[in-house]
Amino acid sequence: MNKTILVIEDEETLGKSIKSFLEQYGYQVTCTNDGMTGLQLIRDTTPGMVLTDLLLPKLHGFDICKSMKNDNRLKDIPIIIMTAVYKNAIHKLEARKLGVEDFIEKPLNFSELLKKVEVFLGPAQKNKPEKTGPLLFDESASDQFRDLREDYTSRLPQKIMELEQLWANIQIRKDAINRGAQLEKFRRMVHTLSGSGATFGFKEISDHALQLEELLDILISEGFNPQDEKKNKIDWILDNMRHHPVISTGIEVMRQTRTIH
Amino acid sequence: MISRSEKLRVLYVDDDPDLQQIVKHGLEMSGNFLVKISPSGEQAIVDIPEYKPDLIIIDVIMPGMSGPKTVEYLRQNPDTKELPVIFITSRVQAHQIEQYNRLGAIGIINKPFNPLHLAPQVTTIWEAHHG
To answer: pLDDT for A65-80, tens place per residue?
Structure first.
């Protein structure tokens, strides 16, 4: 199956987030930020699917759909519309006539996006090979390594819970100065986690932390906006961390031993 | 070559207690290194005259004085201006490598790293520097 996706989104940061998110699941993603280039890329590369915004520079999303519908080579490529504006039934009906298969509302919920993509392009590859090769934490190398790792492993669920609590706090903060300080603290914590996680054998946690760090860099430099889609992505990453078997088991154990409620 | 009879004295500067332990153990288990930990750039500046390290391994992003700021400071002091330094960092980019080279770094180690490979990696960098 052709697992290539063309994303047409004029908000570049969002485009990049979608790309890095979907690529983790084995899809091959190309991004562009205007409608005209988007249509040209569809003609040149015939992607497996198109994910597009509507209000685009140079060519409206609906015009892209129309051109595809009139082209025999392109008319069967599934299109998903991402929109914050065109949400009512009339718009949707109009879009269906143009061959649009599905909609996703902005701000994007990334896990919903993944589900929709999977419908058209088949299941995501959840066990994509590691980019940097396996990290070898050979516990048999020494007893002390094993002890250090056990100790780290036992504290890891607590670290993730602290991140979740801090993130929840940041979102309810009203005063910008305090929120800024908390965002900095959050970034420091994820930075530490990205550096240590994989060293102790938790590559996935490190990768997630690194993604969080990159998102936080942008959030801190652009200023925190409660409507920002990066928030959803942060939620999603934290959620993924929590579902790591070591973390979910650790939290369960803490619950049972009443260290948390 | 690192002499078998005399261990290389390393000062490892990092604010993360987990990495402090694993680096210390990873290097010392090889038998070639003796490692002291400084939890901050500021503390490293205090520790250096007393500990007299042969080599500094320093994290880049730390609260307070960053790794590069600390090294910049060391370069201004005649006693430490030529002290060999290895930066340890994640997300390293081309312009940062240039910056670290300008500060006289003899090597860069990427985070995350394999603790079992750390001693050979540091040895290789050290020997290349002294070759």
So the answer is: 999 999 999 999 999 9
Range(s) of chain A covered by CATH 1.20.120? 139-256
pLDDT of residue A129: 36
Query: Which residue from B29, B63, B90 is facing A142, i.e. has the nearest CB?
Result: B29
CA distances from A192 to A113, A144, A161, B36, B89 (A): 30, 21, 15, 20, 11
Residue B6 C-alpha, separation from nearest chain A C-alpha, in angstroms: 23
Q: Is B101 on the interface with A (CB under 8 A)?
A: no
For residue B14, the chain A residue with the least C-alpha distance is: A192
DSSP 3-state of B101 = helix
User: According to the CATH classification, is domain A139-256 in 1.20.120?
Assistant: yes
Residues of A in contact with B116 (CB under 8 A): 136-138, 141, 145
Q: Which residues of A touch B91 (CB under 8 A)?
A: 210, 213
- Say yes or no: A171 contacts chain B, CB-CB below 8 A: no
Q: What is the pLDDT of residues A14-65, one digit of tens each?
A: 787 788 778 877 888 999 999 999 999 999 999 999 999 998 999 999 999 9
CB-based burial label for A27 (10 Å; 0-12, 13-18, 19+) = buried
Residues of chain A with CATH 3.40.50.2300: 4-121
Smallest Cβ distance to A145: which of B63, B113, B115?
B115
How many alpha carbons fall within 13 Å on the CB side of residue A194?
Answer: 20
pLDDT surpassing 90 at residue B69: yes
Would the ipTM clear 0.85, i.e. be above it?
no
pLDDT confidence of residue A132: 36
